[in-house]
Amino acid sequence: MSELPPYRRTRIIRKEFAPGQRILMISDIHGHDSVFRAVLKKAAYTQDDALVIVGDLLEKGAESLKVIRTLMDMSASSNVHVLLGNMDVFTIHRLLSDDPVWRDRLFDKAQDMIRWWGGCLLDEMCRELGITLTPDIDRIATVRRLREHFAPELAWLSQLPAILDTSTITFVHGGLPHLRLDELEGAISEPYLKNDSFLSKGLSFDRYVAVGHWPTVLYRDRLMDMSPLILRDRHIVCLDGGCGVKRSGQLNCVILPDARSEDFSFVWADGLPHVRAITEQAEGPEPTYIHYQDRAVDILERGDEFSLVRYHSRETRVPTSALDPDNPGQLDTDMTDYRLPVSPGDEMSLIMRCGDEIYVRKDSILGWYKGDYTYVAENQ
Fold first, then answer.
1. Buried (b) or exposed (e) across 35-55, using 16+ Cβ within 10 A?
2. Domain boundaries, the chain
3. Which residues of 216-248 are buried (b: 16+ CB within 10 A; e: fewer)?
4. CA–CA gap between residue 133 and residue 269 (Å, rounded)
5. Cα(275)–Cα(350) distance, rounded to whole angstroms?
6. Using CA atoms, how far apart are residues 73 and 44, in angstroms rounded to an integer?
7. Please, are residues 292 and 334 in contact by the beta-carbon 8 Å criterion?
């Protein structure tokens, strides 16, 4: 394993939280510094709290450099613990590796990431140095300048651990095969940082394992719910609310009043406009949920705003804008036709307008609202 750089090895930090100390758990900030600050404010975070960031600080947002610098400052406190995620390791490796294949991946994906997510770390770094990303940019010289100018940020990222272990909770971005951590220490970390659909592996533990990486909505089979999943019988906490990865996502912060407690609560924040309902809406019939992992549909009738499709044996309508132009017969996102129960005064996050309806998230659940509303002046 000597050829592995340190940031690709499984490094484990072991510690204990102070009795009575609140524990805040956040994963998958994905380059959304303003949303991160907003969720800390909603959680009434103080420096006395233990704050654990469970990986994927970077990419899929336009503020990755801000996130790095915010967490660098915060981690000067012994109560703040920042872990690596798979996106962090991939990005660091692309910046620090001298392998031209990895360097080319860094540049080749930049324009796609800017188009899809509004930015990427490479673009942010280049803009700070006054460098324009062009197809014919000198990649070797550019990376050399970035390594030199951003040496403190890259050094800080490179020394982050993969796992934080305590006697009551173990934190890791993707998931673990077991809690015999001595067997994992020093091994390549990617299997524990990118552990897709971790819950489906049927594992359970004798103390809590808190993970991110896989948005919790992908585990749901009826309602599109972005809230954290707390599986007390299996001792697993899934944190990822899809911030950045999904336009409809939120950044979750799970809170424990004490390390020995199981009284989990959570708050969330997002960067979406918020609206307040004026008129009431009754809950609709049993919804159709088109999963991201299984989003092929038969298009029955294409319309300007909505299209009629068949998903498995059910007919439903989807926004025409959600049909993937590059893959006919497939959506480019997950989608539901759920008609939310809404009362006057309910606050909702606005995702899109379609015809005379809006697609929203209310109480972490996605659905449609057809009624009058006003904009909330400032996200709370």
1. bbebbbebbebeeebbbbbbb
2. 7-269, 274-375
3. bbbebeeebbbbbbbeeeebbbbbbbbbbbbeb
4. 32
5. 7
6. 18
7. yes
> For residues 150 and 125, is the Cβ–Cβ distance under 8 A?
yes
- In order of 154, 186, 187, 207, the CA distances from 12 in angstroms are 19, 9, 11, 17
Nearest to 211 by CA among 238, 251, 244, 176: 238
- Beta-bridge partners for 281: 342
Please name which of 321, 315, 325 lies closest in space to residue 285, comparing C-alpha atoms.
315
Neighbours of 323 (CB within 10 A): 18
Which residue has 């993970």 as its token pair?
211
Tokens of 179: 């809690």
What Å distances lie between residue 88 and 14, 33, 37, 73, CA to CA? Answer: 21, 15, 20, 18
Residue 221's identity, in one-letter code, is D
Cross-strand bridge partners of residue 276: 347, 374
Handedness of CA 250, 251, 256, 262 (dihedral sign): positive
The pTM for the full model equals 0.95
5: tokens are: 């750089």
Q: Which helix (H) or strand (E) holds 100?
A: helix 100-108
Q: For the domain bounded by 7-269, which CATH number is listed?
A: 3.60.21.10
Q: Give me the tens of pLDDT residue by residue for the chain, a chain 380 residues long.
A: 448 899 999 999 999 999 999 999 999 999 999 999 999 999 999 999 999 999 999 999 999 999 999 999 999 999 999 999 999 999 999 999 999 999 999 999 998 899 888 899 999 999 999 999 999 999 999 999 999 999 999 999 999 999 999 999 999 999 999 999 999 999 999 999 999 999 999 999 999 999 999 999 999 999 999 999 999 999 999 999 999 999 899 999 999 999 999 999 999 999 999 999 999 999 999 999 999 999 999 999 999 999 999 999 999 999 999 999 888 899 999 999 999 999 999 999 999 999 999 999 999 999 999 999 999 986 44
